Amino acid sequence: MRFARVLAAFAACALSSCVVVTPEWAYDPELVVRGTVELGTQRMRDDGYWTPTDEPFAISGLVDVRDRESGFGGEFGAGLAFDDADVGTTGTDAELSMGELFGGARQTFSLLGDRLHPYVAFGAAVVTVTARLTQGGWVYDEDDDASFGLYARVGAYWNFGGGFDLGVDLRRVFATDVELAGAGGDVDSSRLAIVFGWSI
């Protein structure tokens, strides 16, 4: 009986300790965390430099965190873009692939009972680009480069409830500088995308 009382006291102490140390900061209701997948078409601004691969398909993933009341916060993400096209009648293919890491400040607005959310963002990006020529599946010419740049975006999304949303995004990358095959150019671009998001 004495052992049972000791065991009960120990169990009560352990349970009370668990209650004390359980963190209350696991979720901050003052912050909104949102993840998105963006699918769209990208237009290279320097048409002459990138023709015929000047309209790559683009996909990116993004996380943004904002204050629930003010709407101010930040974003960071990564993206890929790729295109290919025939060159002449010789069976030669031109291929373009790009990668990007980016992050910046963001202001999100809440309208119509917190359903409609327009936003603007501005930040910095690192863009990598690879251009290659292939024939019969063999790569016979290839070059790559990377550049720092800036970006700005505007968009809006509609919250359907349960944290899920759908929107559109217009994004511009500028102030880049690359050199491929001895020729200078840039990877400045504009992109229009459909945005699928989920937030907590």
Provide structural commentary.
The protein has 200 residues and is mainly beta. The protein has a single domain, classed as Beta Barrel (Porin), CATH 2.40.160.20. Helix content is 12%, strand content 65%. The chain is built from 2 helices and 10 strands. It has helices spanning 2-21, 47-50, and strands at residues 31-44, 57-67, 72-87, 92-108, 116-135, 138-161, 164-174, 178-180, 183-185, 189-199. An 8-stranded antiparallel beta barrel has the order 1-2-3-4-5-6-7-10. It has a two-stranded antiparallel sheet with strand order 8-9. Strand 8 (178-180) and strand 9 (183-185) form a beta hairpin. It is elongated and about 60 Å long. The protein starts with a helix and ends with a strand.
Task: Summarize the model shown.
This protein is mainly β and 200 residues long. It has one domain (31-199): Beta Barrel (Porin).
End-to-end distance, in Å?
50 Å
Report mean pLDDT, rounded to a whole number: 87
Overall morphology = elongated
Q: Please, how many helices?
A: 2
Largest beta-sheet characterization: 8 strands, antiparallel, barrel
Q: How many domains make up the 3D coordinates?
A: 1
The amount of beta strand, in percent, is over 45%
CATH architecture annotation: Beta Barrel
The unreliable regions are 1-11, 13-25
CATH topology: Porin
Helix content: 10-25%
Count of DSSP strands: 10
Q: Which structural class do the helices and strands define?
A: mainly beta
Radius of gyration: 25 Å
Spell the H/E element sequence: HEHEEEEEEEEE
For this structure, what is the CATH class?
A: Mainly Beta
Strand order of the largest sheet: 1-2-3-4-5-6-7-10
